[in-house]
Design a protein that fits this description.
The complex is a heterodimer of chains A (81) and B (368). Chain A is mainly α and 81 residues long. Chain A has one domain. Helices cover 81% and strands 0% of the residues of chain A. The longest helix of chain A has 26 residues. Chain A is elongated, with a radius of gyration of 18 Å. The termini of chain A are far apart. Chain B is mostly helical and 368 residues long. The radius of gyration of chain B is 20 Å and the shape is globular. In chain B, 72% of the residues lie in helices and 1% in strands. Chain B contains 16 helices and two strands. In chain B, helix 1 runs parallel beside helix 6. The longest helix of chain B has 33 residues. The relative contact order of chain B is 0.22. The chains are: A mainly alpha (81), B mainly alpha (368). At the A-B interface, helix 1, helix 2 and helix 3 of A face helix 14 of B.
């Protein structure tokens, strides 16, 4: 859990600076409101994907791999079919 | 100090091709000797020039796609939406986005596994990622021109190092390991061209950076030069590797080119040249990882309807870190994936099949 906490804290710190820069650009008129909203949504989506992946795999007891999960999924599908 | 940057952060098609060449060198030296030896035996080295010839054809396809600089597509995302329509075009861009994300995390893991397996065998794998990824972050945040110039210098260094290593391996080279090649080796040689085709297809991904590449209509000429360079250098690497180790040994080794450099001894006391090769590999890995991060960010632009390049360096790098750790449980899973038909077929289809289809569909619909 400590790993996940450090990971999340680092990501959120970087996100704060980037979002601040994006909002500053929007305030200066370099980007429109809709454009800024889409950029923020995209940023949040990729951050969420990184955090979700970290939350699933970083806790010590869940040392599986993405490839193993995909292979298990396909094996299950084969068994069902 | 006057810095000679242009204002719009664009690179030339020549610089883009050099980035592509250096990016190909790491996966090629990792995969080609073992896979070509496995698929083609003694004639495995013939697959590399066959694959390189396909690069010239692919570059010709892109030269036709980007023929018209004023009214034609500005990048590959633009070409896909023009050729296949807004919905299907976005779906295809989405497939490229997911595949590039997978390749991005895979290459981070390949780099870390290589360091772990070759020199730092007792270190934690996360250490290598934590040293590489901040540099990738800075490169992605910085100017593309600077990264392109670094790639040009690296290409020169790589050429000198590979030629020097090949020269030093000549005493251990046995021509009987690669010759004779007869008409009966035609099918194995063709099979051994699949891994090179799969790697050389990375050229397509670089055209997602098309908005930052100028004079793309010259892609044909620059592509032929890239094909010639990669054909010569990587054939040399494969020939030297299979020639010194023999096909049966090369196909069984995890890193045959690295292992063959351990045979080099100059004037008896001078050896351990494998460290020189490793340092070059690290540079190539840095370039391919950064290139994939840049391509991911460019692809997301069109996919999510953003007109400016978004500031995604931090989340992409964090995604790469977590993805790199958990993409595979161990290096056996990694190797199984590299050698799998799924990975080779997908790389080849996305690298060669889709651009050709894009050109044909675009010309039929008169949108390209």
């Amino acid at each position: 859990m400590a790993e996940l906490a450090i990971f999340a804290a680092s990501l959120l710190t970087a996100a704060v600076f980037d979002i601040k820069a994006m909002l500053h650009e929007a305030h200066r008129g370099e980007a429109g409101r809709g454009e800024t909203r889409r950029e923020l949504a995209l940023y949040a989506l990729i951050c969420a994907a990184a955090l979700a992946l970290g939350a699933v795999y970083l806790p010590a007891e869940r040392r599986h791999s993405i490839m193993s999960a995909l292979l298990e999924l396909f094996d299950i599908r084969k068994q069902l079919m | 100090m006057i810095t000679n940057y242009n204002n719009n952060n664009k690179i030339t098609i020549r610089q883009a091709m050099i980035m592509y060449i250096v990016a190909c060198l790491s996966p090629a030296t990792r995969l080609f000797p073992a896979m070509c030896a496995r698929l083609g035996g003694r004639a495995g080295w013939v697959g590399v020039p066959l694959g390189a010839a396909a690069i010239a054809a692919l570059a010709g396809v892109f030269a036709l796609i980007f023929k018209n600089a004023e009214t034609g597509p500005r990048c590959l995302s633009d070409a896909l939406t023009r050729a296949f329509g807004a919905v299907l075009g976005r779906v295809i861009i989405g497939v490229y986005f997911i595949w590039t994300a997978l390749l991005f995390t895979l290459h981070i893991r390949y780099y870390a596994e290589r360091m772990l397996a070759t020199i730092f065998t007792t270190a934690d794998i996360r250490f290598f990622m934590l040293t590489m990824l901040p540099l990738v972050y800075m490169a992605v945040r910085g100017r593309l021109e600077v990264f392109a110039r670094f790639s040009e210098i690296s290409a020169l260094l790589f050429t000198i190092v590979l030629l020097a290593l090949a020269l030093c391996l000549l005493p251990a080279f046995d021509p009987a390991n690669i010759l004779p090649v007869t008409h009966m080796d035609a099918l194995p040689a063709l099979k051994s061209s699949v891994p090179p085709l799969s790697t050389f297809g990375y050229m397509t991904l670089f055209f997602f950076l098309g908005e930052q590449i100028s004079n793309k209509r010259d892609a044909g000429g620059q592509g032929r030069r890239a094909a010639l360079y990669l054909g010569i250098m990587l054939t040399l690497v494969t020939v030297i590797c299979i020639g010194t180790l023999s096909p049966s040994v090369a196909e069984r080794m995890p890193r045959p080119f690295f292992s063959s450099t351990k045979l080099i001894t100059v004037l008896q006391p001078l050896d351990r040249f494998e460290a020189l090769l490793l340092s070059e590999w690290v540079i190539s890995d840095f370039i391919i990882i950064t290139a994939f991060a840049l391509i991911l960010i460019s692809t997301s632009k069109r996919l999510f309807g953003v007109s400016r390049t978004p500031k995604l360096a931090a989340p992409v790098v964090f995604l790469g870190f977590v993805g790199g750790i958990f993409i595979a449980a161990d290096r056996f899973e990694l190797e199984m994936f590299s050698y799998s038909v799924f990975a080779l077929a997908t790389n080849t289809a996305l690298g060669f099949g889709v651009p050709i289809l894009t050109l044909i569909t675009g010309k039929l619909r008169k949108t390209i």
